């Protein structure tokens, strides 16, 4: 029986046997024509499609869990870099307003995610939303890109954890990596710490969503303490005149050295620091009261992060005139002292851990729903009856990230991996 053009898939999946695979391959043109236009419905996504996971994901999350996941996903190491670029090159001291504008834009986008998540509380996020509006082909392109983006970026971020941790304890990251002479120079350092971090987080998210949320809240709280300490230190030791006076009189002065256009250019750059709130929508299936908890969780996390970012930007602007800010390491250069640099490294390390945890939770849910929809093998959709988590998807993606995070040379492979490869795979499922 077909519902709204959707064709159910069961034992006759392309991967059920080698013969079935060859038969599906021969039928690729007809299957593409049929499935590319197929549109699901909210009822399908929450009933028949969801049932392919076997067991259900337990509803254990409340609004404060979602706020913690949103904050943990957004407040990573990115703010320690984007702030310097935006302030020095574009906004100047008005970087505070740039963060406020970017936060408003992120909040408006978060409202869209909230509306969909409340109406259709499933784990698919953007993939499921597109599947019921524009069809399966558009949804697959988005879902495949999101999964690839999560895997590649998480691998890179995990390698960054080694560098920030080294800064925090005063040990160069190079000493924690060993060299393979068989690989080219520049790509021959094996990062064991990054692999251990990814494996540990993978085990945690496989074990329990609730415990993952608790760990995220603890790490996020510690990270916020580090941030607030830096903010207070900046306000106490900084100078208010740095908001209007540059170090070099030849440079433009005032709170808006580059005018309104500079503020908006800075806002477009720092908006990247807000990426992460969308991962919260993938947890909708595990929320106890979606109608109440999701709006508070998603919008509340964006508002809280906006306040934190504005305070960080104001603190940095008080410590140094905008034309002395280091675009690459603004906070380290602003504090100058060794112990302050160690403090920033420690805070960024906790931020990386929380952003990794939230991103890996989100990527597993995307992969799970891709499996439910039969655009990848249904094996990825399985939810373990004891842990109530998508163990197969979590473990598979975690191992992929370990391979990418282990070596910088391996992490470059994705630049040569065409999207057409994933389209071909989809065609034969």
From TrEMBL:
GO terms for cellular component: membrane. The keyword Cell membrane does not apply. It is found in: Membrane. GO terms for molecular function: transmembrane transporter activity. It is a multi-pass membrane protein. Pfam families: AA_permease_2 (PF13520). Keywords: Membrane, Transmembrane, Transmembrane helix. PANTHER family: CATIONIC AMINO ACID TRANSPORTER 7, CHLOROPLASTIC, INNER MEMBRANE TRANSPORTER YGJI-RELATED. Belongs to the amino acid-polyamine-organocation (APC) superfamily. Cationic amino acid transporter (CAT) (TC 2.A.3.3) family. This is Cationic amino acid transporter C-terminal domain-containing protein. It comes from Prunus persica (Peach).
